[in-house]
Structures are given as structure tokens and as C-alpha cells.
Amino acid sequence: MSRYTVAFAGNPNTGKSTLFNLLTGLRQHTGNWAGKTVTTAEGEFTHNQHVYRAVDLPGTYSLYSNSADEEAARDYIIFEQPDVTLVVLDATSLERNLNLALQVLEITGRAVVCINLIDEAKKLGIDINLKAIAKQLGVPVVAISARNQIGIGALLDQLERVATGAFTGKPLKIIYSAEIEQGIAELQPLVEQTVGSHYPARWIALRLLDGDSSLLSSLKAHLETGTSPVPKEVARHGVPACH
């Protein structure tokens, strides 16, 4: 019986924890993220002879460094590298929710986008073209209602496809302005030289260009376990040094 890890990501009030509770039932426990007061919940569920360790990330609007919640969610996806990141969206607020989905896809292609509250959307006359969204994003997209247990089987099937490698995503690549892309092109080789191919170098370079000192601190903390520190060239690109 194979074991996989699924991280549940999503904005607050998308029904993410409702879905988490539905799948894990009483097979869960809570605690705090290391070094933070942010609460985490973990559980377990099975599907087709596969066991899934479910990690309920804090509800966040982004993966930037605006709060401890966002840092905890970001660091888990980057450093723990779950087999699948399940991004839960609110079908009635897709435009706002997709911001987080796009950020996750910049980090990992091992993702499934779950559009929850599909029954509420239908009541409002909202029609969602799942195939078009999936084609645009480059990862599986499933519509569900966690509260009414609609579409759960289809969701579990897509999680399995990504977890087992039966589906290999080619997520949407966001192209920024020429100036930002030039900065990424200059920084990315330095990031790859430092952290290797194990971490999302393009996304890290983008965040460093943004002056994300929190990410730099997290990177240094993980690299100090046996890898060389962030090179001075990275700090020269306007990134604050962390002491």
C-alpha cells in the first residue's frame, strides 16, 4: 500500500477545512508549526489502496510574507514538497481565489485545483468551464461540494493521478515585464547554484527580487543543515541580508 502526502491550500472560507474533515474524519490531530503559533491539522484517508497523509495548511490569500500563516503555508509547499498540493477555491469567487492557485503553480506542478461550493455557484447562475480552466492552468481541475459530498470520488481520482505520477502537470507559466524577467534570468542561475534543482528556482528568484527577506531567512535555515549559504551575489540584487 503506497503512501502519499497531500497539502490542502486555500483562501479562508473556501470550505477547505470542511473538505479536510470530510476526508479524514476522526483520523486527525492538531499542533503548531515549528517555531510559530500557527495551528496545523494533520489527518489520514485512503483511496484505491493508497494511504494519504493530509496536511491542512493555514487559510491564506497568498504565499507572500504578509503573515505567519502565509509563511507557514509557503514554507511547507517549498521545503516539505508534498506529493500533491490541493488548492481549494470558492466557485462563487473564482477570480479572487485564482490568485493563490497561480502562486502555488509557480512553485509546483504537482497540484490539483478543487473548485468547491459548486452548488452555491449554480444557484447564482454561475457556469464554470472546468475543461477550459484545466487547459489554461495545466493541472487537473475538479468541481465539488464538500458540504453536500458532491464530486468527492472524482476529486480523489485526480489526487491519485497526480500523486502516483500517472498525470504530469505542465502548469501555466506567468510571464512578467521585460525588466522583471531580466532580473529573474540573472538571479535564477545563482539560486540554482545555491539550492540545486530541488527547489523552485524561478519562483525563489522572483520573491528575492521582491525583497522577501522572510523567504531568505527560511532558505538559510534549511541550507544551514548541510548546504552552502546563499551567495553574496544574491544579496547584492537588493535583497536584505539576514542575520
List keywords for this structure.
single chain; 243 residues; alpha/beta; seven-stranded mixed beta sheet; disordered C terminus
Class of secondary structure makeup = alpha/beta
**Tally of helical segments:** 10
What is the first-to-last residue Cα distance?
A: 45 Å
What are the low-pLDDT stretches, counting only 5+ consecutive residues below 50? 226-243
Radius of gyration: 18 Å
Order of helices and strands: EHEEEHEHEHHEHHHHH
The main β sheet shows up as:
7 strands, mixed
How much is the average pLDDT?
Answer: 88
Shape: globular
Strand tally: 7
Fraction of residues in H or I helices: 40-55%
- Give, in spatial order, the strands making up the sheet with the most strands: 2-3-4-1-5-6-7
Describe this structure as you would to a colleague.
There is one protein chain. The protein has helices at residues 16-24, 68-80, 94-107, 118-123, 130-137, 152-164, 178-195, 201-209, 213-223, 232-236; strands at 3-10, 28-32, 39-47, 50-56, 84-90, 111-116, 141-143. It is of the alpha/beta class and 243 residues long. The protein has a seven-stranded mixed sheet with strand order 2-3-4-1-5-6-7, with helices on both faces. Strand 2 and strand 3 (39-47) form a beta hairpin. The longest helix is centred in the C-terminal third of the chain and has 18 residues, at 178-195. It is globular and about 50 Å long.
